[in-house]
Amino acid sequence: MQIYWTKINKIIEETPEVKTFLLDCPKDFVWEEGSHTHLALEGFNAGEKPNRNLIRHMSISTLPYENSIGITTRIKEQCSEFKTILRNLTVGDEVALFKTHSNVPLKRTDKNVYLLSSGVGLATFRPLVLDYFERADNVNQIHSLNIDSSKDFLFTAIFESTPDKKFTSQFVDNRKDYYEEVKQLASDKDGLFYVVGSDEFLIQNIEVLREQGVNPEQIMLDKREQSLPDFLSADVSV
């Protein structure tokens, strides 16, 4: 396993609780839209076994042409040891990256694409939307629906409805409105539905989509292939 040590080159305060850490791109480090990586803090591999408290699985919120690896995450006042250390890092500090992989690249199969996310899960979809804006080949249109009860919505400059690019974006701040919208979107029986959020959020969305007649193969999750049946099985319940 290759470990890439790299430096923080910029820290963006997206909202009072959400920060984006922009990292230098190490030589030979490659990724695509929908990628995640393991972000590790200094000291994680100092002992005989890796200190898992200093490692987190994170989505990459940028594309390679932006020349920085973006890690966007929510850091609340009361948070884990990992987030506490991360919050106190500054430009020039080093972090490690390893095991980078994409479970949710943008499928170009001449269908409508629906991006369903909760809170900072929108960071996973930012690169998919940018990739679509760069090249819309074989994608009919994209609709993004994000729920964030904080009302501090992310990336609003990108997630703004742009009719001439066949892109629409919705933000809601409550579950009732969110799931009513999901039901409406699920009337497209041929669409592709990408879902990013907590496991509970995934399960609830899958239930609603399946109840509306959406097939499991139309639902894309940011999960390893071997774990997909745990979420997409017909008898899933919350």
Automatic annotation (TrEMBL):
InterPro entries: FAD-bd_FR_type (IPR017927), FNR_nucleotide-bd (IPR039261), Riboflavin_synthase-like_b-brl (IPR017938). Residues 1-107 form the FAD-binding FR-type domain. PROSITE patterns: FAD_FR. It comes from the Bacteria. This is Dihydropteridine reductase. It comes from Sporosarcina jeotgali. The lineage of its organism: Bacteria, Bacillati, Bacillota, Bacilli, Bacillales.
